[in-house]
Amino acid sequence: xxxxxxxxxxxxxxxxxIIDRWTAARExxxxxxxxxxxxxxxxxxxxxxxxxxxxxxxxxARLIAIDLIVRLSRxxxxxxxxxxxxxxxxxxxxxxxxxxxxxxxxxSLLAGTPPSRTRHGTIIPYD
Length: 127
Known about the structure:
Elements (H helix, E strand, L loop, with lengths): L2 H12 L3 H13 L3 H4 L3 H16 L2 H17 L4 H11 L25 E4 L2 E4 L2
Helix pairs in contact: 1-2, 1-4, 2-5, 4-5, 4-6, 5-6
């Protein structure tokens, strides 16, 4: 691996944002040096950081992280199992906190209260 490949790998590992990692990974792929760094600890650390960002970030940063996982796995077939797990974890829908839930817990309903439905904020009892 030449010096520029080492620099790209360091940028991939130590990138402060997902954009930095995405750019470094794309340059590694363009230089055809990705396959030579797959087994390195620096690459594994960088890939794990991308996977973590795909799970915890919101909005565009999350989408870019998922995109990078997909691109890397398509370019390097060895990454498919690891990338598949990362994509699965990243695609889990995070539930809203229970304090924001609109559903009423059945335990809090009064005994004998008939079921009802809501329509535009108005409670309409079932007949």
